[in-house]
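pinned: reference chain
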Amino acid sequence: MAHIDLGLDEKAFPGITGPMRYRPETAKPLNELAEVLLRAPHPTLTPGERELIAAYVSGLNECRFCCASHSAFAAAQLPTGMTLVDQVRADPDTAPISAKLRALLRIGAAVQAGGRRVTTDLVEAARAEGATDLEIHDTVLIAAAFCMFNRYVDGLGTFAPEDGQEGYEATAAQIVAHGYTA
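pinned: its structure tokens
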């Protein structure tokens, strides 16, 4: 049970969905931010790659709901699905991803540990692998936003289903088809 009365069935509205229904006026800009960061047209990073960054950071933050949901959202948009997501979450250094995405995940991990942990060396390493300033910017913002989202979910003590990925996969289909603001 959440730390506050959200006025709804938490099992029907787990994780962030409960607080978003509780405060729709704050949900609107948060969903708009997620839509821009994760789904809006981007010249080089796919929605699946951006969701993967969100899932990875959420895993580092030990936010069970956000990690599971965004892992499902990433898997639904990546050619090798959950296999790749699991490999990245387990060890991005050995996962079969591009060197550029690996460098961006390192930046995401640094943001998760603390914004000042993003060093010139990490940025230069990402640039050396072909990352653009836009990709670096968006990685930092995705990681920072997901630190906020994770703390929102866990700070309110919301319910997170433990029954595997099935429920998250259904939501993933909705997000892929309609986005965060639908």
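why pinned: The chain has a mean pLDDT of 96. The radius of gyration is 16 Å.
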